[in-house]
Amino acid sequence: MIDKIQALLNEFAEGKLNQEQFNVLYERYSGQLAMAQQALESGNSEAMKQATGDKSTIALKQEYMGKAVGLVIYQNKTGAAIETLGDFEVSAFLISPILNEFTRMMESREAIAPRVEKLKDKRSVLFTGKGYTTVVTLFHNPPSPLQIQEIERLHQDFETANAALLEKGLADSKKMAYPFMVFVQKKLNKKP
Fold first, then answer.
1. Three-class DSSP category at 1
2. pTM for this prediction
3. Domain boundaries, the chain
């Protein structure tokens, strides 16, 4: 069990788990370790069986893993949505203040760190801002640091691939390349 706890600590440190996954699994492993120690001390084989738990670790990881549901790409200058990929059902009242803040920061040439906002129903919204666009990604469960890095990379690829159009302020969605399609299709198990 101590090996499992160490592996869990390493996975979190490497950004592979979100905080909720870590907390649930750490609590599970700590409880199992305590029960296993108690079972060893008492010699009770039934207590040893209980120490293993009823839900598999893989099932718990999956249950609490961040899953991309959809995303919207906004043009910074106009605030207009360029494209929506997947299912994105979040009120504009929740998104607008943060988009306005990102636009102000970009105009001031301030660095913009990715921002995750938790919603009520186990959903989270990730905001990433670049020079021309802001991407808002809806997740079921919070994204892990590696998932945030993946969205940032795809966002940079989007701006690089579409730089000529974006520099001119031409956000013609039919002429743009969407590296995010791979991410959304992979996460939603959709076919192209």
1. coil
2. 0.76
3. 2-64, 67-188
